[in-house]
């Protein structure tokens, strides 16, 4: 089965054709980064308007790259949640219209599950595993037992991890997108230059939850007094110390969840998994099989949508045309253990 995957939840306008949930025949990603750069963050209205302008070309290019015509596909998958509603609606409405015109089945998929599906496009993975989704909008630790069975055991109680990277970078004018800029600056910075807090959420239901707003505020407040925007060295040290602390927060919960659940496999996805330190730490986990996507499949892309969509459509599971977009994460949190 060849599935067209469409992704417009944030600032990447992407379409991809994936065969049998594994083989990427095309993956076109048109990024809006340059157009949001002047604002140091994604402006929702600009994002949705750009998706409206770009989507037709992006989808057509995905067919061209795969050397297929529109009738060659067996179904259409599209992100319906979570994300910026205006942006999601562009992809969702486009997918519905195309499905109707081609008389093909259509499925709306969850962006968080799709990020965790991304490594399946490159590796053979078995269940169960500890799913670690770290992006600009979400930080979710989950126990995944099937392609659509996911018990969320930890989330952020405030800012998402990528959001903290973006906000710290914005505050110090380090560059945009913040995560990439901080990662690069950190290469030559001293991670021990500043000692930032690691919030101790460790009781009861919060055992695997993370918090980034305290770290973000500490970095911004404490360092303003030391900071001199013209001093390259202090920028590098801020970046490296913050990155070290941000990764520590996450790794502590991951290790705790692995120990408690007895899981021996970690599958990670999302834009922040492109971070060099986080990748290193995840791959260094002892007695654990770690699977992380290559860089281009960490950030938003249509391939992870088409790949995941295949599993629903293969089982005859389709979405109703009344399905709507939602900004929220699906309520699939369970207490664990
Ligand atoms: O998954 P994604 O493309 O979009 C969302 O679903 O949010 O993730 C984007 C996030 C941004 O916050 C960006 O700063 C972060 O991923 N990011 C990184 C790196 N590359 C992208 N964060 C840390 N280090 C990186 N190398
Ligand atoms: Zn994403």
Quick overview of this protein structure:
The chain is of the alpha/beta class and 337 residues long. It has eleven helices and ten strands. The protein folds into two domains: 2-117 and 297-314, Nucleotidyltransferase, domain 5 (2-Layer Sandwich); 125-292, 2-Layer Sandwich (Nucleotidyltransferase, domain 5).
Spell out the key features of this protein.
single chain, 337 residues, alpha/beta, Nucleotidyltransferase, domain 5, five-stranded mixed beta sheet, 11 helices, globular, binds 5'-O-[(R)-(carboxyoxy)(hydroxy)phosphoryl]adenosine, binds zinc ion
Structure characterization notes:
The longest helix has 30 residues, at 232-261. This protein is 42% helix and 19% strand. Strands 3-2-1-4-5 form a five-stranded mixed β-sheet. The chain is globular, with a radius of gyration of 20 Å. With 337 residues, the chain is an alpha/beta fold. Strand 4 (75-81), helix 3 (85-102) and strand 5 form a beta-alpha-beta unit. It has two domains: 2-117 and 297-314, ATPase, nucleotide binding domain (Nucleotidyltransferase, domain 5, 2-Layer Sandwich); 125-292, Nucleotidyltransferase, domain 5 (2-Layer Sandwich), CATH 3.30.420.40. It has helices at residues 33-36, 44-66, 85-102, 111-117, 161-172, 178-186, 213-224, 232-261, 276-283, 295-298, 302-314, and strands spanning 2-7, 12-19, 23-31, 75-81, 106-110, 129-134, 139-146, 149-155, 265-269, 289-291. The two termini are 38 Å apart. Residues 111, 115, 135, 270, 300 line the site of zinc ion.
């Amino acid at each position: 089965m060849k599935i067209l995957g469409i992704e417009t939840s944030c600032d990447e306008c992407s379409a991809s054709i994936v065969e049998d949930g594994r083989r990427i025949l095309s993956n076109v990603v048109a990024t809006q980064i340059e157009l949001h750069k002047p604002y140091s963050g994604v402006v929702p209205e600009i994002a949705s308007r750009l998706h409206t302008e770009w989507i037709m070309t992006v989808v057509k290019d995905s067919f061209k790259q795969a050397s297929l015509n529109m009738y060659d596909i067996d179904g259409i998958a599209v992100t319906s949640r979570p994300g910026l509603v205006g942006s999601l609606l562009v992809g969702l409405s486009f997918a519905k219209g195309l499905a109707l015109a081609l008389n093909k089945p259509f499925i709306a998929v969850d962006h968080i599950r799709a990020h965790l599906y991304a490594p399946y496009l490159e590796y053979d993975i078995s269940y169960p595993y500890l799913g670690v989704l770290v992006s600009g909008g979400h930080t979710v630790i989950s126990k995944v037992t099937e392609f659509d069975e996911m018990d969320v055991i930890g989330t952020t109680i405030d800012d998402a991890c990528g959001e903290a990277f973006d906000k710290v970078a914005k505050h110090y004018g380090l560059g945009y997108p913040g995560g990439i800029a901080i990662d690069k600056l950190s290469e030559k910075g001293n991670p021990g230059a500043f000692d930032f807090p690691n919030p101790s959420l460790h009781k009861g239901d919060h055992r695997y939850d993370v918090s980034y707003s305290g770290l973000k505020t500490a970095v911004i407040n404490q360092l303003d007094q030391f900071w001199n925007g013209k001093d390259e060295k202090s920028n590098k040290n801020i970046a490296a110390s913050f990155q070290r602390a941000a990764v520590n927060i996450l790794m502590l919960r991951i290790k705790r969840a692995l120990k408690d659940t007895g899981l021996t496999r970690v599958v990670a996805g999302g834009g922040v998994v492109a971070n060099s330190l986080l990748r290193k730490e995840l791959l260094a986990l002892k007695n654990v099989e770690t699977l992380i996507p290559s860089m281009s499949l960490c950030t938003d892309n249509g391939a992870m949508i088409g790949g995941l969509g295949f599993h629903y459509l293969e089982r005859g599971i389709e979405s109703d045309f009344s399905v709507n977009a939602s900004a929220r994460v699906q309520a699939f949190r369970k207490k664990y253990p």
